[in-house]
Amino acid sequence: MSNYKILGKGIPRIDTPQKATGDALYTADIKLPNMLVGKVLHSPLAHAKILNIDVSKAKKVPGVKAVITRDDTFGEKWGVFKYTRDHQLIASDKVRFIGEEVAAVAAVDEETALEALDLIKVDYEPLPAVFDAEEAMKDGAPLIHEDHPNNINIHVKIDVGDVDKAFEKAYLVREDKFTSKDEGYGMLEPYAVIAYYHSDGSIEIWMPNASPHTKAKALSNLLHIPLNKVIVRRPTIGGAFGGRSDIFPLDFITSLLSIKARRPVKVVYTREESMICTRQVHSMVMYAKTGVTKDGKILAQDIKVIMDGGAYSSTGPIAASVPFLVWEETYKLENVRLNSYRVYTNKPIRGMYRCHGRAFLGGLGMQLDMIAEELGIDPVEIRLRNALNPGDMQATKSKIYSCGLKEAIKKAAEKIEWDKKRGKLPFGRGVGIGANGMMCGFPMGIRGGSSCFVKFNEDGYPTIISGVIDNGQGNYHAMVQIASEVLGVPPEEIHIVAGDTEVTTLDVGAYSQAAVLVSGNAVKKACEDAKAQILKLASEMLNCSEDELDIENKIVFSKKDKSKQVPLHKVIRKGLIENRHVMGRGHYMPEVSNDREWVKNPVGQQATTFSFGANAVEVEVDTNTGEVKIINAVGFHDCGFPINIKGVQGQYEGSIASGGVGSTLKEEHIFKDGKVLNADFLEYKIPTSLDVPENVYADAVITNDPKGPFGAKEAGLFGSMNSFQAIANAIYDAVGVWIKDFPITPDKILKALEEKRLKDEG
Amino acid sequence: MSNYKILGKGIPRIDTPQKATGDALYTADIKLPNMLVGKVLHSPLAHAKILNIDVSKAKKVPGVKAVITRDDTFGEKWGVFKYTRDHQLIASDKVRFIGEEVAAVAAVDEETALEALDLIKVDYEPLPAVFDAEEAMKDGAPLIHEDHPNNINIHVKIDVGDVDKAFEKAYLVREDKFTSKDEGYGMLEPYAVIAYYHSDGSIEIWMPNASPHTKAKALSNLLHIPLNKVIVRRPTIGGAFGGRSDIFPLDFITSLLSIKARRPVKVVYTREESMICTRQVHSMVMYAKTGVTKDGKILAQDIKVIMDGGAYSSTGPIAASVPFLVWEETYKLENVRLNSYRVYTNKPIRGMYRCHGRAFLGGLGMQLDMIAEELGIDPVEIRLRNALNPGDMQATKSKIYSCGLKEAIKKAAEKIEWDKKRGKLPFGRGVGIGANGMMCGFPMGIRGGSSCFVKFNEDGYPTIISGVIDNGQGNYHAMVQIASEVLGVPPEEIHIVAGDTEVTTLDVGAYSQAAVLVSGNAVKKACEDAKAQILKLASEMLNCSEDELDIENKIVFSKKDKSKQVPLHKVIRKGLIENRHVMGRGHYMPEVSNDREWVKNPVGQQATTFSFGANAVEVEVDTNTGEVKIINAVGFHDCGFPINIKGVQGQYEGSIASGGVGSTLKEEHIFKDGKVLNADFLEYKIPTSLDVPENVYADAVITNDPKGPFGAKEAGLFGSMNSFQAIANAIYDAVGVWIKDFPITPDKILKALEEKRLKDEG
Is the confidence metric ipTM above 0.85 for this complex? Predict the structure, then answer.
């Protein structure tokens, strides 16, 4: 595969033993001396003015150490951009959804905290509420934030080329509407926060998260504590999926409780609280009008999107444009228009999630198949005809440096035996394909980069210190493998200190597919810096030039004369004694247009580089029950170069379960008047091991990206995003019905089959 | 005092709030999930063969999770030098003192652990024991380590010049014997260890210590775990005084318990265990023969020392030469001989302590007064005549770079009103003076240096990451002040991460007076490195040369034109965005002769530089009770330049209490057949606040050392070491008796007064 020493091979992950033995400590597992238990009072109303909060009785309960409300804040609000700061993280003037945090108590035990919670009296004046995004946009709908007319949180507008003129030239124009319902994240680890305020003015905080430095920055702003005193620690994390990438009310509330009580406080959210009070996934309505040439080339596209954002902006301003960005990363779009609205409703807050792909990418991928059918073109072929190539420029002007999209599509088709099966399987069986591009890192200004320190102990074993975080996807292992390749030290002998904001420098976080590209490049640079110091010292010991030296298995040796060698620890010791101690440092800032607009006509490089993937599935539809079973799933991912092929394969396996079975076929939050009726794992169905397809095959497409560390790009997200269209398209191939509303549940299939039967019978 | 912005001023320490509020967590305070309680079985015999250890019954007690004995070790032994590794840290073939660790249990609670401990059956074969060092050296004494004839652990031999010939030329020769009894350390924090072994093969460990990297190195050797997986964490530490500078059996035992139980284990030693099973202070017999010229110049000196080392070497090989090193750092010694024996006895292990000054430095300082009296020279004058000068070379060839010894002596004399009081106060009152030099850092090879990383958050607040440790003396604050001076950031806005071996690089530790010189220089270098990066970036923003820029209060400004300025955080942000993130690093290795011998005729630079101090006291002796009260204590310390004058003064105040009142007048361990009879604070008398002199005055003598950071040198130890001689000499001035055996307790004074009375009466 390559002549790397360590990279590309499938190596068991360094963090496997802890997870397998139960040794790993998640936030809820952590105990601190004198720790209090915190509990939060949530709003029972979807929309109401708060007239009064009376905590006097709660405070008097013996064992209660702190009660906090809106009166305990600096009044700062939070949002990812300065102009979207709409959330005070504890209700002030109004409550805006059922579950919103209104007050909190810290006490010596859970019973005492709950008793005190019951004694907090909140006087509300109920207000009319709205629970549907399109309803909320209508004139006269109840205003959730008074300064946002028609409840429009964000309106992203993109207009490239001349869309209307291009439609005129089109051979075929299709208009479709696709929708996706409210969805949850289904992290197995419930949300939990521990905060520990110290008398030197510093605060330590533990919580599952996708970017400790983002948490720290938000808390620094909200609590008026400088960043070097906001210490976000690194627990083991049980999943993030985009949904743990910004600040949550509980982070702030637990901090306030600890500051007030002057003791550590732990709050572990119940499953219900975790599902309602952290983040949910946007539901979406998408109207897609697409014009193509006779041979299936996309000429014009006009897309309107309405995303239900819930009560506050959260990461919404980004979420509103991301689905489009992914789409333009995949296909050549010369004339394209997007109007994307993120709309406030009186529902829980919605956050980033897998590029919000169900209705948008799933829908556009289905529409491509529909167009192909009308034109008599094979779905694989239409994708190949529109797919981007290396060197191409995207609609909003991002250059593609490496691109294995076509190779991925072809290989997926071949592996699933497309030509043998498409349209040729018995009724009830079908195959479908999906393809996507994916950005590696966003323009996030100073917050988009990463740094790394490397230190050596005198026995020659290194430690890498990086702000990168791992939510389960294998980032720590990837960093160690990169360090291993550079330093010539076996992965198991490298220690990594990651995430902890006290000792690591600013890192973008494990979202927008940045970890391997951004944090990985920083680790690589720091290790190269250390290696140069090592080779310089060794060249003096071996009387030769640094250029002829390399390191393998902790031995520095001459590539010209292998008998010339010295153990690494002796080189380190020489550096120590001679006042030239080996200390590596490296910083990487992605090559993006940091002044690129997010909301109005963005132009410029939106990511350093892009990965690509294709995904083909074979499904079996039970026409009696409407149940869909995935028989085969194959994925080919242009991840540039796989740091650890097992990691790439593991990501695809997880994606097929979570994005394929879960998001595409099952997952949906049921609401009644703004109340989530299934905020638990009994009623909210995530796939279990029994639901996962037995035959899953994944491999890498290698393009050796010029920007990635050792040619590597993102390797995680494609499997989910492609599943929506691949499965929907396979269902059509199997039983001839299009389900345009996600999730594609059995009832919808049965209903469509019935409608089809009635129509066919004429 | 200087034109420094931050240095030299008296600033409250950054760690004061935590200690004042009780927020600081000592090891015993720390709680971990699933933590077990450990208990240790100690030997009841002073010397015995172990025939058998039966743990079968203990293992069966429900709730017992691990039982360990000699069978659970790799058989590695520990000692500070390779050739002094005599201690397996859990008894193997023999026990060698009452209290030696024989087995240990980890269980779910203390009661269960104690119950199991009772069920461990150890069969001993008692052996004859020896409890006196001079007895132990005699032929035929029981051998404690079979390979050490006459129980001699270490024999340090120094012979400079021609001692015998010089004695022939002497005008006066005196021979005296001085002794000091067994002493404890009296740290208020009992010894405690928490160990937490993880399934990735790493181990976290917490304990009070004076050098986390030394602990890590020892545990790495003993447990066969690489250094980057031996993570010594940083708790708050309640004192070290030299006695927590190497590895203890409990460190190793707790680690073994955790490795075996696969759970975290905490062992908190009782006061008795803390006193007996960690370290004690060497008792000493010193024979000093000194020849002087008529005008009091030391011509020749022949010193023989016998130190009772207890059962194992510990830091003994160093301890055996240190008192002499301090002596040669103080006075010109052209012809001098030392024979220093550290001898094994069946007593608890003895470690480093304040240069072991009672009998040695106290004794030589008393003998100097005796000689002065015989020659009719004033004690102040005889010190001035013999004191070293800047540029001088010591006996074993260390160069003196800066030296304020004479100034310190003169100022102390002046401040105590020497000329008005010496010999002129009423009977029962007297004044005395003492003076000493002090090495700053030892030659310790690669372990003698320190490194530092500096990172910046985007708000412009820095964090310094240093291996330095603080046992209470103020090292963290000193580092922050140094960083503050370089970086132009107020001390309270700088965060320090220190000690933790996972994230910091090798550091010498807080002993041999290294912290300010060694760790401080590393911090300074790292901050200077960061500052250079900052000024480069700022020069581009302000269109001027880097040379004209400086930083104050987080503003970078032109010294030529103060209107040219930019806030530090903007400079940091520019670095981030331009891929030139400010990351400072620095390493400092002291300028010493790293090949200097420790045991046989050491020659070469023994420390980078030396500090000096003088100490004068006025005492009142109650001739009815024998009680000594210190009326006034004044100290002048050539610490080069005081980083924080309050810190220097605080060290002196503590020294007068601990070294002056405690070591000189009170503290002594009472033994019976190898058993410590007073291993508690009821019977072992340390001074309380009521015993501390009311009038204490301390100030710095400024010599701006060329090697120290901002001219600074050691600032802690002189007050104790000088107290022994100053107080003993003051007692002589007050009541005319010499007490040559420390501590100088009331009974000894009364007995001496009685003898004097009888003698005077003829």
Answer: yes
